[in-house]
Design brief:
Protein name: Putative manganese transporter
Strand content: under 5%
Pfam families: Nramp (PF01566)
CATH architecture: Up-down Bundle
Radius of gyration: 21 Å
Low-confidence stretches: 1-18
GO cellular component, one term: membrane
Number of strands: 0
Number of helices: 16
Distance between the termini: 53 Å
Structural class: mainly alpha
CATH superfamily: Amino acid/polyamine transporter I
Order of helices and strands: HHHHHHHHHHHHHHHH
Number of domains: 1
Helix content: over 70%
CATH class: Mainly Alpha
Shape: globular
Organism: Shewanella sediminis (strain HAW-EB3)
Largest sheet: none
Keywords: Membrane, Transmembrane, Transmembrane helix
CATH topology: Amino acid/polyamine transporter I
Length: about 425
């Protein structure tokens, strides 16, 4: 594999246009991470937060993105510095660390695959009058065909197009909603999210905001995969990650704004049924863009969540395959990677069948699981980025260490609060 090398163009002050072109060409892993994030956390959690509580949770969404930043950034920074994946780093810390990561990652892989698959199937009901269970099977088969025969290159190109159209469409919808007359009654009093009964919702929302922290390991492996086709400098890798992460944070607020401007105070609440939820979500857009845009918006939203499903299957499969490879000293195998994809897809489908179309309960379960395991994944990344095994110039400095510690305290604190909340229900 070609090493992450310094590219003189990227440092050149004489060629700013060329530098921009080089940086743009290197975009890929960061956008794939954004595509994985802009799924249930944005389409469901952010929109629902705005619909239920207006703008009250906007600061919390931004705070969560900030406090999780050091743990996500570890994927790009560690790989750019060492030309190795995060999983190699875990193994260097000790075999037990990689075993811990792989075990929790297996649970997360199955649950997350189930969650995004059902959400994609729910969106597909707008176009195909079949049950969610059958559509979930179709979604998984389509995703596997794309990944097995298209590989990373196709996924990389497809994601950039989908992300562009979703971003533009959502921004237009919010801009129109800002100019639309308010339908909220003057007597309406917005409920406060800071009540004991909403702890479960807050934890679920934060669990996948902007995404599960194990996504950092996907970014690490995608960066190595990108490196097979072109040279990527440290600066390019960090720019790519920061660009993708910034998009996820901003769009989280945009989706919250859409829910707040169109649905908050209307008396309508999101249904737990996947079919009804999909209709409600698209109605949010069509109310401000016009009913004639309903199917166009539905298609864009479907492509968005479908890309999330594809990246989730690809990302989890790559990390599980790499974990197995490192733990057993096996050689790299495309056949084994395909087998992992098939296995987590089959187990994810089994969970979808178990929940029988109840989308919101499934997503809440997956998001809460993500939040509880996030504490461990965050700690693993912090330990790695402050380890003496990493060159001192690439370790986290005082600012990133401080932000990481605040992030860990927040994660542990809310996890403890949620456990207490569950015990007293």
């Amino acid at each position: 594999m070609e090493k992450l090398a310094d590219n003189p163009v990227i440092h050149s002050k004489k060629h700013p246009v060329m530098s921009f072109k080089v940086a743009l060409k290197a975009l890929g892993p960061g956008l794939l991470m954004a595509a994985a994030a802009i799924g249930a956390s944005h389409l469901v959690a952010s929109t629902r937060a705005g619909a239920e509580f207006g703008w009250q949770l906007a600061w919390l969404i931004l705070a969560v993105n900030l406090l999780k930043y050091p743990f996500f950034a570890a994927g790009a920074r560690y790989t750019a510095a060492t030309n190795e994946s995060l999983l190699h780093g875990y193994l260097k810390q000790g075999r037990g660390y990689l075993l811990l990561f792989t075990g929790l990652n297996t649970l997360a892989a199955i649950a997350s695959t189930a969650g995004v698959t059902m959400l994609t199937a729910a969106m597909l009901t707008l176009f195909i009058p079949l049950s969610i269970d059958i559509l979930a099977f179709i979604v998984l088969i389509s995703s596997l065909v794309l990944l097995i025969f298209g590989h990373y290159a196709l996924l990389d190109k497809l994601t950039k197009v989908i992300m562009f159209f979703l971003t533009i469409t959502t921004l237009i919808a919010v801009a129109l909603a800002l100019n639309a007359p308010s339908m909220v009654s003057p007597e309406f009093i917005s409920p406060s999210p800071w009540q004991w009964g909403y702890i479960g919702f807050l934890v679920a929302m934060m669990g996948w905001m902007p995404a599960p922290i194990e996504v950092s390991s996907w970014n690490s492996l995608w960066l190595l995969e990108k490196q097979k086709s072109q040279s990527v400098t440290k600066e390019q890798a960090i720019f790519d990650f920061n660009f993708g992460y910034l998009i996820t944070a901003l769009l989280a607020i945009v989706f919250l704004a859409l829910g707040s401007l169109v649905m908050h105070g209307s008396g309508e609440h999101f249904s737990s049924s996947g079919v009804k939820f999909a209709n409600q979500l698209i109605t949010l857009y069509s109310q401000v863009l016009g009913n004639e845009t309903r199917y166009l918006i539905g298609a864009v939203a479907l492509l968005c969540i479908f890309s999330t499903t594809v990246t989730v299957i690809d990302g989890y499969s790559r990390t599980l395959n790499m974990g197995w490879q490192l733990l057993t000293n096996k050689n790299e195998s495309q056949k084994r990677l395909t087998g992992v994809m098939l296995t987590i897809s089959a187990l994810g489908l089994a969970i979808v069948l178990f929940f029988r179309g109840a989308l919101l309960p499934l997503l809440e379960f997956v998001m809460i699981l993500a939040f509880m395991t996030t504490v461990v994944f965050a700690w693993l990344n912090y330990k790695l980025m402050t380890s003496s095994a990493l060159p001192e110039s690439d370790r986290y400095g005082l600012k990133m260490k401080s932000l990481s510690i605040f992030g860990l305290l927040y994660l542990v604190g809310f996890a403890g609060l949620f456990i207490y909340w569950m015990a007293t229900k």
